[in-house]
């Protein structure tokens, strides 16, 4: 079951959601850094040898590998350095048709792979069939990896031990119960703690679950964490857990001193519509949230840990569907088929440095990283960004930004 309005429903379009007029705009009109001082190019387009109805639903970069989860249960990985080697920025985009000779692939579960995270030699994947799967990744060569499924969460041990104790059973429907370790709807997003010891999962069943990565045990389940489906989760280095929901709220959770369970410590109610994506600045000081109201809210963490909305980034014509943060850049993908690149230029001001156009359908997922192949003597910083769209294509973009003066 879907928890967002259909992209094809003209009478109920996500873009009809009203924008946040009550929140001040952070869009800069300064000439300090303008789009004319930056450049970008699409290096290549990855085209998949499958049905045109299949698309990439999740992307993540880890080291030299790009991981992608698809709407038809596939998990793939590529050595993405091959996509940038010998590529020279031109106005012509090359198209790479992928096949099983240049990527590693495995099929699991039912429905879309909604979220992927990597920690050490483990790959965690969240699925539409209500499960989380854990894989051991073995590098077979410079280019190829082997996936070995270690477990499906909840594990058999968790299911059996919880099943025997009546208090572990919770009602999920009028005449149906299950143990609290189970998600009972799509697992929409997963995130790891900074030290990799804990995995947090959120679901359309409105719960948050905490898993210990050492033995994959489910430690906690927060029931009715939101009033509607939870679409996104982000975890900061200091243990704050942020969740975004179709109920228009962002909630902040933390284990208080002396407590073993998550406590609700803050709720943010500034969006006018369902929240689709969250992303944190690397130091955890700023949270970015994207929603169907076409705005990206910028919220700063105060001294007491509470979030304060300082403004909104505006420019997309339709819903914000995905976000990524790399270095001092914020990247946003939208139902309007574009990706926008933002950078804070001074206090409470952001400049939209680039609008990446070329996809024919809404942008479903993005991931970005510094370009490590860049010439150290360059007077610009180079970034690589991958965008996945409902048009079944993944595009690789290279961004050149001037170095900021200190």
Automatic annotation (TrEMBL):
Q: Does the keyword Nucleotide-binding apply?
A: no
Matches recorded under Pfam families: WD40 (PF00400)
Report the superkingdom from the record: Eukaryota
Record keyword Repeat present: yes
Which UniProt keyword terms apply here?
A: Repeat, WD repeat
Which residues form the WD repeats? Answer: 180-221, 223-254, 313-342
PANTHER family xrefs: F-BOX AND WD40 DOMAIN PROTEIN, MYOSIN HEAVY CHAIN KINASE B-LIKE PROTEIN
| Protein name (database record) | Protein JINGUBANG
Originating organism: Glycine soja
């Amino acid at each position: 079951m879907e928890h967002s309005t259909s992209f094809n429903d003209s009478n109920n379009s996500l873009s009809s959601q009203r924008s946040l007029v009550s929140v001040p705009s952070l869009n800069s009109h300064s000439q300090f850094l303008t789009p004319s001082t930056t450049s970008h190019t699409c290096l290549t387009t990855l085209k998949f040898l499958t049905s045109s109805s299949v698309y990439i639903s999740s992307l993540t970069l880890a080291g030299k590998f790009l991981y992608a989860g698809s709407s038809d249960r596939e998990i793939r990985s590529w050595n993405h350095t091959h996509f940038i080697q010998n590529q020279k920025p031109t106005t012509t985009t090359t198209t790479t048709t992928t096949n099983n000779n240049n990527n590693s692939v495995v099929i699991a579960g039912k429905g879309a792979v909604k979220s992927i995270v990597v920690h050490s030699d483990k790959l965690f994947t969240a699925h539409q069939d209500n499960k989380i799967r854990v894989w051991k990744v073995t590098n077979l060569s410079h280019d190829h990896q082997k996936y070995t499924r270690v477990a499906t969460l909840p594990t058999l041990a968790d299911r059996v031990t919880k099943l025997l104790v009546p208090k572990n059973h919770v009602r999920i429907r009028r005449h149906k119960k299950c143990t609290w370790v189970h998600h009972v709807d799509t697992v929409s997003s997963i995130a790891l703690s900074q030290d990799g010891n804990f995995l947090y999962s959120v679901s359309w069943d409105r719960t948050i679950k905490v898993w210990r990565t050492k033995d994959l045990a489910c430690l906690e389940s927060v029931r009715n964490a939101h009033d509607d489906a939870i679409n996104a989760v982000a975890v900061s280095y200091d243990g704050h857990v942020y969740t975004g929901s179709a109920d228009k709220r962002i909630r902040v959770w933390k284990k208080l001193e002396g407590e073993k369970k998550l406590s609700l410590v803050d709720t943010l109610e500034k969006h006018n519509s369902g929240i689709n994506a969250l992303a944190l600045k690397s130091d955890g000081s700023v949270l970015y949230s994207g929603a169907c109201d076409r705005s990206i809210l910028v919220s700063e963490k105060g001294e007491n840990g509470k979030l304060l909305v300082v403004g909104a980034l505006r420019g997309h014509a339709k819903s914000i569907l995905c976000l990524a943060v790399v270095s001092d850049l914020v990247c946003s993908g939208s139902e309007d088929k574009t990706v926008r690149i933002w950078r804070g230029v001074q206090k409470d001001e952001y400049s939209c440095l680039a609008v990446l156009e070329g996809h024919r359908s809404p942008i479903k997922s993005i991931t970005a990283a510094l370009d490590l192949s860049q010439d150290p003597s360059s007077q610009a910083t180079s970034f690589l960004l991958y965008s996945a769209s409902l048009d079944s294509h993944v595009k690789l973009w290279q961004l050149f930004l001037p170095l900021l003066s200190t």
